[in-house]
Amino acid sequence: MPALILDNVSKVYAPRRRSWKDRLTSTPQQQGFRALDSVTFTVEHGEFFGLLGPNGAGKTTLISVLAGLASATTGSASVCGHDVVTDFRQSRRSLGVVPQEIVYDPFFTVRETLRIQSGYFGLRNNDDWIDEILSNLGLLDKAEVNMRALSGGMKRRVLVAQALVHRPPVIILDEPTAGVDVDLRRTLWEFIARLNKEGHTILLTTHYLEEAEALCGRIAMLKAGRVVALDTTAALLARVGGSDLEDAFVRIMHDDEFLGVTA
Ligand SMILES: Nc1ncnc2c1ncn2[C@@H]1O[C@H](COP(=O)(O)OP(=O)(O)OP(=O)(O)O)[C@@H](O)[C@H]1O
Predict the structure, then answer these.
(1) Which pLDDT score, from 0 to 100, does residue 259 have?
(2) Ligand 1 atom 17: the closest Cα is on which residue?
């Protein structure tokens, strides 16, 4: 059973509701927006998988479907064999998600934040693991500091820590290195690579394609909600040509000849 299964997943966001002004002026009801269009792929246990695509391609929507934050309009998805709708609790428990946007509660310290997150998963006495995560993310000296007193990069580290408190077998990182310094990048990638070596499955979205090239064994590329490339990083580079993944990405996105580069 693969770690992640996406089977023909489409997502159409509902149209904006018609306002009284629209009705008065007889403005027709808008169509919904198709953010994902028949997305099908699997990620095996232990893979380091890259999900790439330009702004608005549907990456966050796909992650939201996997995390149960958005419902697929059609199709199905599962995490470690648990359907994200009918077996939500188990699928969510199998997943740690590092969101793109920094959201935090300004009333708690870093440690309190991580204890509360542990509580959501029914975990008490989780401090040994919390300390290990803090140490690996260079946050140990900030453990008793209030969240609002952290820099942006530090807050992002806490988001990573939050995703890991329940030791999920599958970790999804949605642009985790956006706006963070070189130090955090290195620490973060060393830690994530270690977790991957220990057997965790990683799904990463990033616009830093050199990071994806160095880390990901296999890559899916989305364009306007559709999978337009899906293969091992090496095979993609060999087939599309170009000097590196960034080059291959640009060719796939702009050259019809390379659309549909799938294994
Ligand atoms: N709640 C929503 N309602 C309507 N449209 C939405 C909603 N959320 C996202 N969209 C649209 O769906 C499309 C895909 O958005 P999504 O955030 O999944 O893209 P992305 O690939 O993650 O982009 P980025 O790289 O900029 O983060 C975009 O056109 C976006 O405007």
Answers:
(1) 65
(2) 60
